[in-house]
Structures are given as C-alpha cells and as structure tokens.
Design a protein that fits this description.
Order of helices and strands: EEHEHHEE
Largest sheet: 3 strands, antiparallel
Radius of gyration: 17 Å
Distance between the termini: 43 Å
Number of helices: 3
Helix content: 25-40%
Amino acid sequence: MTVIDCTKLERDAGGKPHTLFLIPLRVGQEDRMPAPKEMDSALTSLPLRIGAYVPDDLLEDWFAPGTGMNPPSEKALTEAAAYGRRFECEFKYYPERKEGVFWKWVPAI
C-alpha cells in the first residue's frame, strides 16, 4: 500500500504555497527518505567499471534511517546492497572514505 504525503509545499516570496509535492511513502516507513529516482536512472544506465559514490549520511537516510551512522549500520549497508542488485550493481562500503560505491560488475571473459 502506498500513502501520499501532501505536506511538502513550496512557497513563493510572499509565503503563499504555489507547488505541492506528492511524495509516495510505504506504510510504516514514513521517516525513510528513499533513494531519488535519478539514482535509479543512474544505476540503470551505469556503464561497466564506472561507479556511483554515495556519502555515508545518505546511505543511512536512504536505506535505514534512525539506525545510526559513523559508520552506517549493518542494516543500511545490507539494504544498499539489495538496492544495487535491483539494477545489476555491486555495492561496497569504504569506511576510510565514508562512502559507499555502486558499480556494474565486469563479466569474466
């Protein structure tokens, strides 16, 4: 089931709302900020051997909010890896760089 959050209003200089953002949320995950659709598109069209780098604060926000970061929780990293697999991408977290990387694996020749 999907719920629409109608609370996101963009306001003009006078404070009047002029744009309503409809953000689909899964029931029970209202605090979760899903990965943006642009990330879905980026991973879908990602060439082989090219990476998409995501800072650890976004990993936590996108995949397991409220579970802690510094480093991101195991749940966030597990969810990020599952997300990557949806787009045929590998995922690895690099704690020394405080970022995760999604990339398309290169098949053996």
